[in-house]
Amino acid sequence: MKNVIVACGSGVATSQTVASKVKRILDDNKIKANVEAVDIKSLDSYIKSADVYISITKGGKEYDIPMLNGIAFLTGMGLQEETEKLIQILKN
After folding, report:
1. Which residues contact 89 (CB under 8 A, 6 or more apart)?
2. How far apart are CA 63 and CA 75, in angstroms?
């Protein structure tokens, strides 16, 4: 099963909100994946098992997996584009 990591500063409010929205989008598109909200400080320990990383904070390290803009899932601005990228990544 594919793994999606959503990271924000604390791993609580914002990342949980985005993770719930992402899970709903994936369910609506019949894509099975684990979606986990984490804090940015513990990201390194989760990234190894992730297929895609959704970032709500700016900056930080670069990883060898695709990274999506989490603000789009939060605000709706650019949501369609990020959703299409997410679906494409998880279908491969």
Report:
1. 51, 52, 66
2. 24
C-alpha torsion sign, points 17, 23, 69, 72? negative
- Number of C-beta neighbours around residue 87 at 10 A: 14
Q: d(Cα 92, Cα 85) in Å, to the nearest integer?
A: 11
* Continuous H helices in the chain: 13-28, 43-47, 70-75, 79-91
Q: For 39-68, what is each residue's pLDDT tens digit? A: 888 888 999 999 999 998 876 678 999 999
Beta-carbon count within 10 A of 85 CB: 16
